Amino acid sequence: MFKELERINTRPEPFEFYTAADLWTDEYIAKQMLSFHLNGEVDAASRNTAFIERSVEWIVEHFSVRSGTRIADFGCGPGLYTTRLAERQADVTGIDFSQNSLQYAREVAAGKELSIKYVQQNYLEFKTEERFDLILMIMCDFTVLSPAQRREMLSKFHAILEPGGSVLLDVYSPVTFEQREEVAVYEAGLLNGFWSPDKYYGFLNTFKYSREKLILDKYTIVEADRIRNIYNWLQCFTPEDIKREFAECGLAVEALYSDVAGTPYDPKATEFAILAKRL
User: Fold this and answer.
1) For residue 192, is it left (φ>0), alpha (ψ between -120 and 50) or beta?
2) CATH fourth-level superfamily of 27-172+237-278
């Protein structure tokens, strides 16, 4: 028991483990995630509905979205952005890991008679001969990736963008890093039964890595017949960090905002959005 508790409370190396597949492909957890996506009153798996509406209107206006505008949404979830953008006549592709989310998105598209291409795949592995005018990665998805994965992602963006095409994504700022604290929490049925329909005990260890400005929420889920770990990495960026990483992959940062709805940039905000163009 002591050795197991030691293991549970051990701090891993930065990005030592990557468990996205466990989070997005577990059938029970996927259903839980979908319910959070579809709760339009809160910012959980997706932004709240009012924000998404405001964000889409800004994107449509700022990028002059019209018939034939080709948009790729990486981590599209149940299509909260893709559906609205397709309704504005854009030619939209959504990529996501979750079968549950994409099934919902496809049903919505069919009901609205919208032609949206959905791809169920880890977006790190996504390949296409298509070229896009705009790439979206919203809800701070970029921050869960390791430095190597981020380079791979940005290089992919550069390869599939039209010359002069744009990327819009959001990230956590150093303010988020400063506000979070290291904690160790133990609770029966941690997060109100989120992790399993069966009885379980959950441990949450939050670790901070000062040099990297990196946060880890490490979940250990103990059930009768198995023990699972979920690692939720949250990289925090300065604007200088972002500009350097983008430039190394042929993308020039053109503007910063406080969010993907075009709110003016605030260095005191916990997040910020980046608009970059393919060089």
Assistant:
1) left
2) Vaccinia Virus protein VP39 (3.40.50.150)
Per-residue pLDDT tens digits for 261-274: 999 999 999 999 99
Query: From CA 142, how far away is CA 20, in angstroms rounded?
Result: 13
The Cα 236–Cα 274 span in angstroms is 13
Dihedral angle sign, alpha carbons of residues 261, 267, 270, 274? positive
- Per domain, the residue ranges of the chain are 2-9+176-234, 27-172+237-278
Judge contact between 168 and 136, C-beta under 8 A: yes
Q: Specify the pTM.
A: 0.94
CA angle 152, 154, 159 (to 5 degrees): 95
| Nearest-angstrom CA–CA distance, 127 and 104 | 23
